[in-house]
Amino acid sequence: MRLDRFLSESTDLSRSDARKVLKSGEITVNGEVITKGAYILNEDDVVMWDEEPLALVGLRYLMLNKPAGYECSLKNSLYPSVMTLLDIEKRERLHTVGRLDVDTTGLILITDDGHWTHRIISPKQECDKVYVATLAEPLPDHAERLFQEGVLLNGDDKPTLPAVLERIDERTARLTIQEGRYHQVKRMFASLGNLVLTLHRERIGPVALDADLALGESRYLTPAEVQALVSDEFYP
Ligand code: URA
Asked: What CA–CA distance (Å, rounded) separates 128 from 117?
């Protein structure tokens, strides 16, 4: 990798500021001052800025317990972005794996690894997403069967894939879906003439929301969780 790129990727410097810092002679590689941005680094070269070692920020994988009132966007728009809840370097490189509505709470994955995201959200992966919904009206007797068979959502031309509904009480249910259509859970309950009052995501594939995370808190995924989310072993 070129030295100017390494500098901008391992610090907050833009590429042009990195070149200015290089010109000023503040950067050493293996103890020798290097001023050229085009200098090509080897893997075990030690780069220092004013005697502080620099390292590349590796790929990051996090889970966040999303509170209501935050958008799954990169920048604040109508509501603040979920990214503002993270106290993390190079936040601008991160994205959410799929989206939750502004009023939905619970598990959202955040990363800067686009390939990983793609594998998780690809419809081919058939990754379970598990939600708990509280509803305005009691569930009808046949709701499980209808969701298992698939329902036609307003404006769509194909019914939903089989989904598993589990009653928790008269107005609370756990729903497992494998698709990610726009407002899918709310629209599925709307197809029964019902209204979702609160929606919370508990799990994505093999990874459940950590019960120790309060709303707004996040943590890094363990290597096993990162792997499990893209491993064929966990999917049908
Ligand atoms: N389905 C919805 O309707 N909303 C969400 O936030 C997620 C799934």
From this structure: 15
